[in-house]
Amino acid sequence: MNFFEANFDGLVGPTHNYAGLSVGNVASLSNAKNSSSPRQAAKQGLSKMKALHDLGMVQGVLAPQERPDVYTLRRLGFTGTDAQVIAKAAKQAPAVLRAVCSASSMWTANAATISPSADTHDGKVHFTPANLTNKFHRSLEPVTTGRILQAMFRDPAHFAHHTHLPDNDHFGDEGAANHTRLCSAYGKRGVELFVFGRYAFDSSQPAPKRFPARHTLEACEAVARLHGLSGEHVVYMQQNPDVIDQGVFHNDVIAVGNQNVLFYHQQAFVDTQNKLNELRRKFGNETDLHLIEVKDSDVSVSEAIKTYLFNTQVITLPSGEMAIIAPTECQESHAVSSYLAALVQQHTPIRHVHYYDVKQSMRNGGGPACLRLRVALSEQEKQAVNPNVLMNDALFSTLNQWVDKHYRDQISEADLADPQLLDESRSALDELTQILGLGSVYQFQQD
Questions:
Q1: pLDDT tens-digit map of 364-391
Q2: Which domain does 394 fall in, by range?
Q3: Count of domains in the chain?
């Protein structure tokens, strides 16, 4: 049976803005208060999706969240009509309003952790939405994320869905941004690499001092249990606290993997050699495992963060060769572009680099890898996926027309207080659920 990896990219929402909400994310903070272009952001994301589809990849679309989130504002004591709730929040708690307008669900690497059927005890693909407890604006996402994933992967014969972990920092879970699966082939049992920032129940262990470690070991272990993974095929690695304090808020800012390749920075992990030895042992055929370490002398941590060298996608093309999907910021950096040009000439599976413009996302702190959720599927499992969410020429055209119809060209922080923005967003999402065949996944559709 044919197996492959599908990428499901987050569709940028109508309220895409630069509010600088993500402490620890250098790009997010440095662009705070700048005006954004939701229309341009959505079209850049769609262009990347279409480009991967044209490369022969299975590419899907993940719908955004409803924003502004007036339901959360009501939970926080704001009353009246929707317009009155927004006006009161803008006047009394502008920081809260900015948070409930965030379009951060576009970064679907944080949407969930997914284990393919080859790894799980019951032979199903397992999904656990991330609780994202470390950031208020992202902690609002998991319930709707769960509904959207269930609307995309409906068939219980193939897919198992779990409730997100308890909403507590002890089980802080940032999803697939801290998870990598290594395997000899997508359809064979692999090794699932869970990366965490700190130990929740042991304060004596190393932890960052400046920025928060968002993901805990305990969350990793819980997801592995939920998905029925064998301990002999799981590795837990800790992020280097020093690089978290330099702005590496997720592992996918300092490491990325695909099949038999782990591409990582010299400073990415704690106890690197011992953990890589464990990874080699559990992977099995060590000669087939390519561990590509980028030295400080080649690319510094700060340059990796600035360009998002490791927030690139490493994909396996239909030819069997691998390619890196990189933002144009990597191309514009002499150190990074030189490194990548040399890398594709070396004896590794990575043979190509493709550069794409995703600047609207990059300025808010997310590169190509942030924008996608990876799902390894068999051909039979793919047939069970909601077909309306899979990219093709017709869907690309329809979604571009939908963006032109509903999205603003510019949004500033002041625009978030405009009650018309809620009506525009709901109108857009109501039409989107019909295009993607999702049903009533949003709260406003159920009221």
A1: 678 899 999 999 999 999 999 999 999 9
A2: 3-67+102-446
A3: 1
